[in-house]
Amino acid sequence: MERHIPFEALSNFRDLGGYPTQDGRRVRAGRLYRADSLGELAENTPDWTRFLSLGIGTVIDLRHPGETERHGRVPAHPSLRYHNLSIEHRPYDQSSLSPDTDPARYLAERYAEVAQDGTREIARALELVAEAAGNDEPLVFHCASGKDRTGLLAALVLGLLGVETPAIVEDFSLTELAAPALLSAWTARNGGRAPAWPGFGRAPAEIMSRFLTALTARYGSLDGYVAQALSLDPAALSTTLRAALVEPRPDDWPELTYRRATAADAPALVRLRDTAALWQLARGIDQWKPGEKDEAHFRERMRTGEVWLAHASAVLTGAWEIWWDDPAAWGPRPPDAGYIHRLMTVPHTTPPGAGRRMLAAAEARITAASRPFARLDCLSANHRLRAYYEEAGYRVTGERPAGTDGTGSPYPVTLLEKRLSPSHR
Fold it and tell me: Is 80 exceeded by the pLDDT of residue 307?
């Protein structure tokens, strides 16, 4: 499932479905959306047709009335109920902040102000979300970039639905995938000049982590904030939302199919890796970073080795690389192995066990190339991932320190190896 729904004029329109809840269920897809400014939509365009096809009945616009006057609002339509609820009251201009302003600290403090100043509007927004949920009606809420005010409301809604904090933080950080487009749009609106603050449009996970930590410290929990600051009944609100917007995880999943990637798949591979990187960072795993691997990387790996894609039905669900040598990590070796890199799955919506099946498919391809070993590595500090590979039959053969000469891994890794049998063919 691709959370970002593609629009020509919008960069950060996302489905909140698919996140797991604490009771083992998941948020329903196609019911709750978050977005950047819907004032960019225009009637009689493919974007407008796509938007109407989602069946959205309620639009919550979290911008100031002055913003809607300057930049427009969603076009009026008989199927839409439009609510303008400005939840931000102390003005601040992110584009003009000094370059040394720390995004995490600064924005977490601003979110705390919004949470205090906008209680009436936040409470009304939550009531509208509950009303739409009870009416089985899709809803979207948005601000200008779909990051700050929208991120705050999304965190509250997901928390009331029973989504755990790491996934709430991850959802916030997915704006990182839209940040280049948001920056480009701002530059186009401002005569080609760039904002003074390099953090403009960015959404590092630490911002939301800090905000939620501060909220819990003050109110005891997210529910405490809803009860004390918003004067709402969190139990009743949560019950209404969960009854309408949470569903059991499916019992039956599509079978995975595999194919070799082509150059045309490079953009999807970059997005998949960046999404996986944000999942890691939201859980304190300091390994991958968004933007580290570009399309050229994946095209080069297709040229010198192989890149494979996994699909469930027609939906991309994972990928991996096979290298035919890896001297930076393993040193000079005879041609006796395939080296598996970047085994990655789509967070939350991948069928259970997909990672193990993808690993087996990679091993089968290595065996088909008449190489008796599969080798891979993982972050030395990631004991959970190491255990995962060991359970799959890999044994630790050594440790490799962080590379200091531009080759090899930039962090310490554990090297693992598995002898393959002909049954992998």
Answer: yes
Q: Are the C-beta atoms of 79 and 52 separated by less than 8 Å?
A: yes
On whether the CB atoms of residues 74 and 41 are closer than 8 A, the answer is yes
CA-atom Rg of the chain in angstroms: 23
Per-residue pLDDT band for 405 (boundaries 50, 70, 90) equals: low
Topology given in CATH for the domain delimited by 14-247: Protein-Tyrosine Phosphatase; Chain A (3.90.190)
Helix axes 234-245, 119-134, angle to 10 degrees: 40
Instruction: Assign 406 a pLDDT band (cuts: 50, 70, 90).
Output: low
Contact 197, 23 (CB under 8 A): no
What is the pTM (predicted TM-score) of this model?
Answer: 0.92
Q: How far apart are alpha carbons 143 and 150 in whole angstroms?
A: 6
Measured CA to CA, the distance from residue 319 to residue 175 in angstroms comes to 22
Class of domain 256-424: alpha beta
Express as a percent the part of the chain with pLDDT over 70. Answer: 97
Selection from 174, 169, 164, 134 nearest residue 15 by Cα: 174
Domain ranges in the chain are: 14-247, 256-424
DSSP states along 261-328: --GGGHHHHHHHHHHHHHHHHHTT--S--TTSS-HHHHHHHHHHSEEEEEEETTEEEEEEEEES--HH
Please tell me the distance from the alpha carbon of residue 71 to that of residue 276, in angstroms, as a whole number: 34
